[in-house]
Amino acid sequence: MSTTVLPTYDDAVARYEPVIGLETHVELGTNTKMFCGCPTEFGAEPNTQVCPVCLGLPGALPVANRAGIEATIRIGLALNCDIASWCRMARKNYFYPDMPKNFQTSQYDEPLCVDGYVDVEIEGETFRIEIERVHLEEDTGKSLHVGGATGRIHGATESLVDYNRAGIPLVEIVTKPVTGLGSRAPEIARAYVTELRDIIRSLGVSDVRMEQGSLRCDVNTSLNKPGDEWGTRTEAKNVNSLRSVERAVRSEIIRQAGVLDGGGRIHQETRHFQEDTGDTRPGRSKETATDYRYFPEPDLVPIAPDTAWVAELKAALPERPSSKRARLRVDWGISESDMQSVANAGAVELIEETILAGATAAGARKWWMGELARRANETGVELSLVGATPAQVAQLQALVDEGKINDKLARQVLEGVVAGEGDPAVVMKTRGLEVVSDTGALQTAVDEAIAANPDIAAKIRDGKLAAAGALVGAVMKTTRGQADAKTVRELILARLS
User: Fold this and answer.
1) Residue ranges, CATH 1.10.10, the chain
2) At what angle do helices 185-203 and 321-332 cross, to 10 degrees?
3) Chain centroid to CA 422
4) Are 198 and 348 in contact (CB under 8 A)?
5) Beta strands of 335-399 (E only): which ranges?
6) What's the predicted TM-score (pTM) here?
7) Residue 220: is its pLDDT beyond 60?
8) How far apart are CA 196 and CA 192, in angstroms?
9) Measured distance CA(12)–CA(6) in Å, rounded
10) Which of 148, 424, 443, 466 has the fewest Cβ atoms within 10 angstroms?
């Protein structure tokens, strides 16, 4: 059996040109499902939010959710799309246990929004990602495979299905093939999904929480030699974090290059991204449109948005995230590269909310882009899920500003906050981390430091006041960093004057 030798990433992109395409699914935050009145609350007991319509029982007829249509139009407008004056739903037929009707109500050749674009900026360079279509459909149920080691159907002893999610309004945003990215394809894919998430969040139509599945991305990747036709694409399904979008593109470029180098052929298939290893594994052969036997949905009337209504929705769109970042960059007094780093980390809204909670721009950015970003990178989670809220970060900075803790103690307090021990003030009290500024309590430590370092004390007596820093450090060590450095320095100078 032959073994594929994988090239390095740099070697792969030096010899092959990647082409990517991204299909992003957004669960809308409507109160009820797309074609029935069932609630859409996340985390409810399995199969408690269902009815004859979303279970596909005989004789049950769907009725379209106006809020879902409106949200889709607003997304299309925010993505610079043309809005169809007339379109209709279609039946996408397939046999899977997660769709009890055996078809999904979707859109096929008549989508609601077409021909848009999203501009993403990386290191001062702008890349335009063209949008082919934005269409409205319903989500499927959720399958749970148990009894195996992987959580997938292969090797499982039984499968369970929760239909609560079936019928929730789902918007699919499909890009046109993106070419000419070269080695930057993975980071641009991540930047695009990041920008898309920010745009949709600004509209308030979805919470776009990737860890809960309300934002999911299918990543298409193919390789070709320069000047050749595009290669056969693969589709990494349901990639559920920004970091994983980048890793999925990178790993597929490396894998496909290895296959092609060995004289092999890329098969058009869906693949599953593995969070633990960072690579993809085969899923199933990829269907084509004819396999789904699309035909117009006979139980729903066509959608014909009134032009005046569309114009009204367009006029009410919020500030674009890119424009907002430009404004905040000036307000915060930071460089374009610093703002780009903030955006790449997904920290713009977090820092903004921390400032609104009372912190300075510098203080808010310090914690989110420093200690918290480090923890997010170490644990491989999105920054918003690291375990601290903007309000807590603002409270932490307030404790520092008030002199109750210093930066060293603040990091320990933040550790407790992230661990779920409570708000900063509670952690400070519980762990006994408050700065000691009482002169009586500190005087003994100061005298001990002077006695232990007579040479340094002599220099201070001779007027070399900079030497006091060494004694301050000795006192800080003795008090485990809890002494107020300014008070300690004053006590040292007073004792040796």
Assistant:
1) 439-496
2) 90
3) 25
4) yes
5) none
6) 0.79
7) yes
8) 6
9) 9
10) 466
